[in-house]
Amino acid sequence: MARDSIDAAVSWGIATKRNDVFNDMRFLPGGTFAMGSDKHYPEEAPVHRVTVDAFWIDAAPVTNAEFRRFVDETGYVTFAEIAPKAEDYPGALPHMLKPGSLVFNPPDGAVNLKDWGQWWEFRFGANWRHPNGRGSWIKGLDDHPVVHVAYKDAEAYAAWAGKSLPTEAEWEFAARGGLDGAEFAWGDELMPGGQPMANTWQGEFPHENLKLDGYLRTSPVRAFPPNGYGIFDMIGNVWEWTSDWYVPKHPADAAKACCIPENPRGPREEQSYDPCQPQIRIPRKVLKGGSHLCAPNYCRRYRPAARHPEPVDTSTNHVGFRCVLRKHETVRPNRYDVTDADLRLVSGGGYGLEDRVASYTRHAGGWAGVRPPPSHLSRRHLANWGSALPR
Ligand SMILES: [Ca+2]
Ligand SMILES: [Cu+2]
């Protein structure tokens, strides 16, 4: 890292007790860019201009080795290692209130792609040290991204490191690597010249992983080329937590250049609840970047504009994070807000929620008609319905 950038950061007055804090971070000067996409999933639209101030971002996702250092120094226990409290999960099946996390478990053959219960299971004993549950271990995976971290775990690590979690706008600005408006972090082709540029899924998800990129599950960070800003693994490998609450759309583009949002922080927490599970009020954060489980036939979210909601209590073997440092850590008031009326509009059309509900209610085997089905993966859902969903 260039000496003058370190001096600049120090003169910004970033309080940190760690002198190695800028190791392996990239300095981004900030700027105005086109955030979102109108060409893919509806939650990425509309494209709108956003300005972010200068910041630093980790050159790679936080690894198992780095997370271990945090745990060794602090004795921190992650969410997945603690048994959920019954009062936090009304209606949970008592036998499900055990420590654990969500693990991808591929079926033998093609399945209904609308039913994630076919490939996700809540595995007791799965946590960051045991990525595939009891009997699995991270030996040999020191340089792989840490997984099975819930939002609070990522926040705790960031605080320990003297850093923060990125906003969605910061994350997307960094992921684009200066290629404003490009489809991918490296240009407009998924595999330029047949060359895999990220750890995603090749083949028919969820039963056929052709591993053309060399990796069945997570990969060591930096195994693929960096983007134009010298940042690795923004796309694929693991999804990454951001600090923004999730709503399934972006605000409209500013009418005038003077009104472009600066350092947007997303909508309000209470707007992030899953409209499909109104009785469950666990807020959801925006995940970015896609993972090794993103496949052309199922989820084409290996792009900077892509986004996905994740309940804050939910950890999986394909979600990790990285950190940022900002000039000023003061939260600015939002320059825009998504209104509740906007959200009603969204839930009413085009998101496939009705389709999904219909598909679940058609599902033979007991949970049809009992309660609204989950629209997304969540620990809460699995606590209440059990990990063995009807197959
Ligand atoms: Ca792969
Ligand atoms: Cu995906």
Provide an overview of this structure.
The chain has a single domain, classed as paralog of FGE (formylglycine-generating enzyme) (Alpha-Beta Complex). The chain has seven helices and eleven strands. It is of the alpha+beta class and 391 residues long. The strands form four sheets. It has a four-stranded mixed β-sheet. A three-stranded antiparallel β-sheet has the order 1-4-11, covered by helices on one side. It is globular, with a radius of gyration of 20 Å. It starts with a helix and ends in a 6-residue tail after the last helix. Helices cover 17% and strands 13% of the residues. The model is unreliable at 10-17, 330-377 and 384-391 (pLDDT under 50). The protein has helices at 3-11, 64-74, 151-160, 168-176, 340-348, 353-362, 379-385; strands spanning 25-28, 31-35, 48-52, 55-58, 100-104, 120-124, 239-245, 284-288, 307-311, 319-320, 324-326. Calcium ion (CA) binds next to loops. The site of copper (II) ion (CU) has 6 residues, from loops.
Topology:
Elements: H1 3-11, E1 25-28, E2 31-35, E3 48-52, E4 55-58, H2 64-74, E5 100-104, E6 120-124, H3 151-160, H4 168-176, E7 239-245, E8 284-288, E9 307-311, E10 319-320, E11 324-326, H5 340-348, H6 353-362, H7 379-385
Parallel strand pairs: 7-10
Antiparallel strand pairs: 1-4, 2-3, 4-11, 5-6, 7-8, 8-9
The chain binds calcium ion (CA) and copper (II) ion.
Copper (II) ion is lined by residues 290-291, 293-294, 299, 301.
Query: Which blocks of ≥5 consecutive residues have pLDDT under 50?
Result: 10-17, 330-377, 384-391
- Report the average pLDDT across residues: 82
Helical content (DSSP H or I, runs of 4+): 10-25%
Morphology call:
globular
Q: Which architecture name does CATH use?
A: Alpha-Beta Complex
- Which structural class best describes the helix and strand composition? alpha+beta
Q: H/E element string?
A: HEEEEHEEHHEEEEEHHH
| Fold-level CATH name | paralog of FGE (formylglycine-generating enzyme)
- Major β-sheet annotation: 4 strands, mixed
How large is the count of helical segments? 7
**Distance, first to last CA:** 52 Å
Strand arrangement, major sheet: 9-8-7-10
Q: Using only CA atoms, what is the Rg?
A: 20 Å
Residue share in β-strands = 5-15%
**Whole-number total of structural domains:** 1
CATH superfamily grouping: paralog of FGE (formylglycine-generating enzyme)
Name the hetero compounds present: calcium ion, copper (II) ion
Number of strands: 11
